[in-house]
Write a structure and sequence with these properties.
CATH class of the largest domain: Alpha Beta
Number of domains: 3
CATH superfamily of the largest domain: HUPs
Strand content: 25-35%
CATH architecture of the largest domain: 3-Layer(aba) Sandwich
CATH topology of the largest domain: Rossmann fold
Strand order of the largest sheet: 1-4-3-2-5-8
Radius of gyration: 22 Å
Number of helices: 10
Structural class: alpha+beta
Number of strands: 18
Order of helices and strands: EHEHEHEHHEEEHEHHHEEEEEEEHEEE
Distance between the termini: 38 Å
Length: about 400
């Protein structure tokens, strides 16, 4: 993989005005962090990762910036992000490294998405990208190339490290494990996308923004005079941002495949030009005239059909989840009552989790654990390919991919 490095300039970090209370508390936590204070910061060119680097520098850490080159062209992960990340490192007086991950990103994320959408599944790329492209590979690069064992990012999440003492009380066995916690700002909490990180990765992470709100971050970025302080956030998946829309991305890789929109009994009510353009729960944009609003309830990849139904028939109370990564507790052997989040923007819902025996295919997979979820109230958007993430209050217990 190609690597490009920029030498550091004289440090200009260290704000001349007092930190906000949240910023001051974050700096004190970083100063009190046990062990060596050397870290690589994953820099995307946005305000969150920029402030992460600035707070670490202010707290006295030895910081180096690392940006992954994931795509060519516009977008947060491309030219604009690279330039802003380099500018932040120049401003802070720390080295900046750029590593060419474009081929790896194409294999792990682009091909994965295209295959999933073509088969009628709605894949979740962000958690996969965090596991396969970002955290693990960045830690390996930092250790091999710079002799640094820690990675910091601008995610709104927290890790309670195993060395901190007794784990937070949760259902199941959590002793000796690093616990992943929600970010303090419920509106920005990103723990959902981190459920698939293994213990060996969690133990080496630093999340300086975990106890900040987004307004805190903006205020601290202004205090440091960061060039990204008022940079707007990307509202879309990076691939959608890069191509202009998710539809444009899919159209670039999947040819139009006309098919039928049908009711559950097989009656044809409309036509479509590709099941990849539909999601479970969708109501608008179906192009179907019916006596009552219809919602997408299933994508049939084998028959190239979009199955729709009235809202009263669209909810489900159970699902099967596979490829589970148990994070803050050991894999349970008995049913657990917990909270489950089936979409990033959905709220946690009470459910009973019952472990299931792995199938032969599961045994061959990297993560063989499976379960059945029974929700206290029926859910409207249970989508194969998306993640079901398990919580006990602020502690993320684990998560997996919805299979059926």
């Amino acid at each position: 993989m190609a690597r490009f490095s920029a030498p550091p300039l004289p440090a200009t970090a260290g704000a001349s005005v007092a930190a906000t209370p949240a910023g001051a508390a974050a700096i004190e936590r970083l100063r009190a962090w046990p062990g060596e204070h050397r870290v690589v910061v994953g820099l995307s060119g946005g305000v969150d990762s920029s402030l992460t680097a600035a707070l670490l520098v202010e707290a006295g850490w030895t910081v180096e910036g690392l940006t992954l080159w994931l795509m060519s062209g516009k977008g947060a992960c491309c030219a604009e992000g690279l330039v802003d990340a380099a500018g932040i490192c120049e401003q802070l007086g720390v080295p900046h490294h750029v590593v060419d991950f474009r081929e790896h990103f194409r294999e792990q994320i682009v091909d994965f998405l295209v295959q999933g959408y073509g088969a009628g599944v709605t894949p979740l790329p962000c958690s996969r990208c965090n596991r396969e492209v970002k955290f693990g590979p960045m830690l390996r690069w930092a250790a091999a190339e710079r002799g640094i064992e820690r990675l910091a990012t601008g995610h709104y999440a927290r890790v309670r490290h195993a060395e901190a003492g007794d784990p937070l009380p949760v259902p199941g066995e959590g002793r000796g494990r690093h616990q992943l916690l929600r970010g303090l700002d419920a509106r920005k909490d990103q723990s959902y996308f981190l459920y698939d990180l293994p213990q060996q990765v969690l133990g080496r992470l630093v999340f300086p923004l975990g106890e900040l709100t987004k307004p805190d971050t903006r205020a601290e970025a202004e205090r440091h005079g960061l060039r990204t302080a008022q940079k707007p956030e990307s509202q879309d998946l990076c691939l959608a941002d890069h191509h202009g829309s998710m539809k444009a991305f899919l159209d670039a890789y999947l040819p139009p495949r006309q098919g039928e929109i049908v009711l559950g009994d097989g009656r044809v009510v409309g036509q479509h030009d590709g099941i990849e353009h539909f999601t479970i729960g969708q109501r608008k944009g179906l192009g179907v005239a019916w006596s009552e609003p219809l919602h997408v309830v299933r994508l049939d990849g084998a028959m190239n059909r979009v199955v729709v139904a009235p809202r009263s028939e669209a909810a489900r109370s159970t699902c099967v989840v596979g490829a589970i990564n148990w994070v803050s507790i050991e894999p349970p052997t008995a049913p657990l009552e917990l909270e489950v989040q089936v979409r990033y923007r959905s709220g946690p819902e009470r459910a009973l989790l019952t472990p299931l025996a792995p199938t032969d295919a599961d045994y061959a997979a990297e993560r063989p654990h499976r379960c059945r979820l029974e929700f206290a109230e029926s859910q409207f958007s249970i989508t194969p390919g998306q993640a079901a993430v398990f919580y006990a209050g602020e502690v993320l217990l684990g998560g997996g991919l919805i299979q059926a």
